[in-house]
Design goal:
The chain is α+β, with helices and mostly antiparallel strands. The chain contains 3 helices and 13 strands, in the order E-E-H-E-H-E-E-H-E-E-E-E-E-E-E-E. The longest helix has 22 residues, at 105-126. Bound molecules: fe (ii) ion.
């Protein structure tokens, strides 16, 4: 166990099941009770994480950009705005897969290789069973890939309601120093600011209590910004909410 607010836990993925080297009940207590940031180390192999990034970027090139969120289909948006309620400026490109049955196999397979194990982990940690389909009513999961482009991608401070999500996943799909220069998620916990940029490697999962204020630091403005380039930092998230609620 690592002392300090960030707890690193070695983890294995075998037959689609994520197994941390710490009992699930203890892990939940660390995150939800003690408010610690947990990094599950080495969950997804570099090749698997890279395959997701590449397939999603390819899909994005073949799919027209969306201009609104419908929270039901598969779509991607380039965002460069200030969120209305929380007034959080942000620049990123998000890819949303609310209906994984309707994406081509070339992107569905790498996405399921990532999100199916996350579905199991989320169930183990929260007791909530999710499915990759939109129900008639109630909350559902929104598998999402986010690209923070080199040269200016970021997301300013914001927060979320604790319910119904309970805890968040941020899976790193890029390698610092190779795929991107800098940038990472930071959390405010009590009077402390906690960064994860230097501890989260490609394939690691960051777990955090969902009501911690957080932000994503800006990629180096000295680099060229290009929406069409894959350069920058890519992550996957597993948001669970009801956009109709
Ligand atoms: Fe957030």
């Amino acid at each position: 166990m690592t002392p300090g607010p960030v707890l690193e836990v070695q983890t294995i993925l075998a037959d689609g099941v994520i197994t941390p080297a710490m009992a699930i009940d203890d892990l939940r207590t660390e995150i939800m009770g003690h408010g610690r940031i947990v990094i599950l180390k080495g969950v997804f192999a570099d090749a698997r994480a890279t395959a997701v990034r590449t397939a999603v970027a390819d899909w994005g090139r073949q799919t027209p950009l969306a201009e609104v969120d419908d929270f039901a289909a598969n779509y991607h948006r380039r965002r460069c705005m200030i969120s209305r309620l929380q007034q959080a400026p942000h620049v990123f490109h998000d890819y949303n897969f609310n209906d994984l049955t309707r994406v081509p196999p070339a992107v569905r397979e790498p996405l399921l290789a990532l999100f199916e194990p996350l579905r199991g982990l989320y169930r183990d940690l929260t007791g909530t069973e999710t499915a990759f389909a939109v129900p008639e009513t109630g909350p559902y999961v929104h598998p999402q890939i986010i690209h923070y482009p080199a040269g200016g991608g970021f997301f300013a401070r914001h927060w979320h309601n604790l319910a119904p999500q309970q805890l968040g996943f941020i899976v790193s799909l890029s390698k610092r120093g190779r795929d991107y220069r800098n940038g990472g998620t930071m959390f405010e916990i009590g009077d402390k600011r906690i960064g994860t940029e230097e501890v989260q490697d490609i394939g690691d999962i960051c777990l955090w209590r969902y009501d911690h204020p957080h932000w994503v630091t800006q990629s180096d403005l000295g680099d060229k910004f290009d929406w069409d380039s894959e350069a920058g930092r890519w992550v996957a998230t597993y948001a669970y909410f009801d956009p109709r609620g």
